[in-house]
Amino acid sequence: MSVIVFKNKGVIDPKSITTFGVSSKENPGAIGFFGTGLKYAIAILLREGCAVTIFAGTKRLDFGLRCEKVRVDEFNFVTMNGKRLGFTTELGKTWELWQAFRELYCNCQDEAGEAFEAEAVPEPAPGETMIVVSGEPFKDVWASRSDVILSTAPILRNEAVHVHPGQSNFVFYRGVRAYRLGAPSLYTYNIQRKVDLTEDRSIKYQWDIDAAVRKCLVEAEDGNLIHRVVTAPRGYYENNLSFVGVLPSEQFIGTVGRLARTFDPALNRSAMEACRVWLMDQLHEARPVELSKLEAARLQRATEFCARIGYPVAEYPIVVSEFLGEEVLGRAHRETIYVSKRVLMMGTKMLAGTLIEEFLHLRHKLRDNDRTMQNFLIDALVSMGEQLTGEPL
């Protein structure tokens, strides 16, 4: 009967098996540090009917069960070479068998070891630790270990996270499954930087995941990947990912900008907001749109009308741009009035109103959705009424 073997250099101290809170590893990047994982794994394996043997060098340690009564209840105590230990199969009672595999694999990985399937128990060697597990349930977990241990090559690397192909319900931490997402992700994310873990090696806070993934994506240079992420359908993790407050790459800004100009309804709104300030800073570098004779005449007429009613908008440079943002008709930026080409298609009246609004932003420092702007417009309306009636109020 075949067995699953976890082997690494160095001899395990039996006290680390029998004592809680003991975790001594030489690898500074070790995933485990609570000193409980191996005890949990042994208890779970025995509870699921699997056999466990540890070789500390050439010393063999066989684990079994002994049923004993504590007050009115019976418990299966774990034994090591027939000696009862201080924990039972109730340890990790909510854990599943794949988590026991994860513990053994992580311990092995932390010690730069190897895991493999063998037809028989290998010969133990001095200076090595070998954990041998047998049992059909554990062999099933081993067969599906790619659900627990990442085996694909990343398509994008970043110091915060590696991005792997394929959808997933899980986030991985340094190659090991460590978090169940509330919604599936379009890509599989493998966190690389240090984050807080719970005692069962799960990532403690989702915001650590979000921050790492966001950093990786906004720095990405793959336009296709960015496009897919910022247009993720509803029901996917990326659809709710916030990009506000980040410093996006030129590729990210360019991709989001192109999607915004086509008014793609799937575009992540926070991605658009994250890029808006950078897009605004680039407005002065963009080439103005060439106007047709009709459009030029419409702009001239609107400008002259604004001047006649007391708003000399032409005192500021007026630039017609291809796109200013989703549903944005005009912007006041760096002492310049920008209007979207789309507003020229909406008539001279709409164009004049847009020019006046941006003029007020520049001349009087009034902001959108502000009571000061509201009061100014009411006062202007009343003053215009006075002019029309020819009588002051």
What's the structural blueprint in terms of helices and strands?
Layout lengths: L2 E7 L5 H4 L18 H11 L3 E6 L2 E12 L2 E8 L2 E6 L8 H14 L3 E5 L9 E7 L1 H8 L12 E2 L3 E4 L3 E6 L2 E10 L2 E4 L14 H13 L4 H8 L19 H12 L7 H13 L11 H16 L9 E4 L8 E4 L2 E5 H4 L3 H17 L6 H19 L4
Parallel strand pairs: 10-12, 13-15
Antiparallel strand pairs: 1-6, 1-7, 2-3, 2-7, 3-4, 4-5, 8-9, 9-12, 10-11, 14-15
Helix pairs in contact: 2-3, 6-7, 7-8, 9-11
Strand order of the largest sheet: 5-4-3-2-7-1-6
Number of distinct helices: 12
Strand count? 15
Low-confidence stretches: 25-35
Helix content: 25-40%
User: What is the count of structural domains?
Assistant: 3
Morphology:
elongated
Structural class: alpha+beta
Q: What integer value in Å does the Rg equal?
A: 33 Å
Mean pLDDT over the residues: 86
Please provide the ordered H/E string of secondary-structure elements. Answer: EHHEEEEHEEHEEEEEHHHHHEEEHHH
User: What amount of the residues lies in strands?
Assistant: 15-25%
How many strands, which pairing sense, and closed or not: the largest β-sheet? 7 strands, antiparallel
Distance between the termini: 102 Å
Structure write-up:
The radius of gyration is 33 Å and the shape is elongated. With 393 residues, it is an alpha+beta fold. The longest helix has 19 residues. The strands form three sheets. The chain has a seven-stranded antiparallel sheet with strand order 5-4-3-2-7-1-6. It has a five-stranded mixed sheet with strand order 8-9-12-10-11, covered by helices on one side. It is 35% helix and 23% strand. The chain has three domains: 145 residues, no CATH class; 126 residues, no CATH class; 97 residues, Zincin-like, CATH 3.30.2010. The protein is built from twelve helices and 15 strands.
